[in-house]
């Protein structure tokens, strides 16, 4: 029986892999059981394959009442439990089947699928390995193994597993699609395009593959081709949330704001927690907010934290790689700290040229090499003489993740940094708290003005706001909360996350929403944090607020429930309730 797959079609941001496949429910070899049990199994399987899970479940339970140690009934009842989302029960049932029948290859594959859904990916890999030891050409096990490897960030192993599945079944469209996902995360974009295209050639009505190919066109700047792919995906599957919000994002990038807004709203009707749609809707209302390099350069506290960390880490033999040259300031700090060589890259040709001029004017052109490329296009041997000893970057956005910092660090660690190399900052945290305060409230919401009720206007303003000045009087209504933490030195892959946070209020006040800021752990002892309670003359990273539909009055010691999520590119926060 195929698993009830909760599809996660490709978003503009990196995707998560789809649920593990269980394969068809199969009956035992005729004569293996008594005819009465055989007929019951056959009938249950018919209902199972037709999608009538309650009827199938009832028959499996009847069989087990008469024969509690029937391995096929145990396994197939476990499959039903998995499809109903009861994965703990599925694991228990399938494990019992394997205790009775240790060489039950389908059961090992089913067990791996349930473990995968429980987030026990290492155990899922072990279960798939057992299935493949018994049956090396078991194509579904190879395919599912690839997805568990992908979830673990073992992208090379995932690619191998998908290739093995394809070698056994060259027409396996789903394997080509997920192979494309893994290749994309490895930065092999041309190969990913070829893999998605092959999936579509095999299965022209494969909506997810069309959507994924659209992502590749979007990344490569082919917006018209991306739009066509998303529209094709939606013709095949009109309820495809990812294709809807991705199409909205493409239309926004094409300057078609009115049409983009329509698709963003459609996406949010289907999935209110869609990060892409929420962000695109915000940008449709407010427009894109530029990054202000001047404020960043004048952020003395931030500069001091970077400089001190560089001075501590750099020796006379250190080769430094910087991602995101900007003005060239960090590169010059590294050179002044005694680095033997500094290589810095910048995607914008104009900014790269200006940085070269600034570096030359400060007499450091002989130590610093500026490359006008994205970091994922840099090659050791061509652009870098050898892997770098130290990676430094300031490409963090107001939301920490918004400039693709996670994929950039993953790629640099994989290709451009020596195994013993270090990163500055060594880690980063996304911090949040509930906030209030009349001063900031007057700048983000409207109520009564000159005797008129203007509250309706709040419905057409962005629910995500970047506070472009640092002079608001903000009242924090909860303690500081670390929503997400990223250890850049220790970890090599950072998957998307969604969690529920429960926070206690510490003071009474009118709550307008959630405020977010960044904490950077430069090294073991140096921390930089643009905390909202600290006002500075200039700030490189601004605070971001996620605004409620209307203010809520809170009292001390109330429990606040917050949904926190990120898709590796953008975080999003929503206040669910206050008790």
Structural account:
This protein has 579 residues and is α+β, with helices and mostly antiparallel strands. Helix content is 45%, strand content 18%. It has helices at residues 35-49, 53-66, 71-83, 87-100, 105-117, 121-134, 139-151, 155-168, 173-185, 189-202, 207-219, 223-236, 241-253, 257-270, 275-286, 293-297, 300-313, 329-336, 349-361, 405-415, 438-444, and strands at residues 319-323, 341-345, 368-371, 388-393, 417-424, 427-436, 448-449, 452-453, 464-467, 475-476, 481-487, 497-504, 509-521, 527-529, 543-554, 559-566, 571-578. It is built from 21 helices and 17 strands. It folds into 3 domains: 35-236, Tetratricopeptide repeat domain (Serine Threonine Protein Phosphatase 5, Tetratricopeptide repeat), CATH 1.25.40; 293-424, Rossmann fold, CATH 3.40.50; 427-578, Hnrnp arginine n-methyltransferase1 (Distorted Sandwich). The model is unreliable at 1-24 and 27-35 (pLDDT under 50). The strands form 4 sheets. Strands 6, 9, 10, 11, 13, 14 and 15 form a 7-stranded antiparallel beta sheet that branches. A 5-stranded parallel beta sheet has the order 3-2-1-4-5, with helices on both faces. A hairpin with a 4-residue loop joins strand 16 (559-566) and strand 17 (571-578).
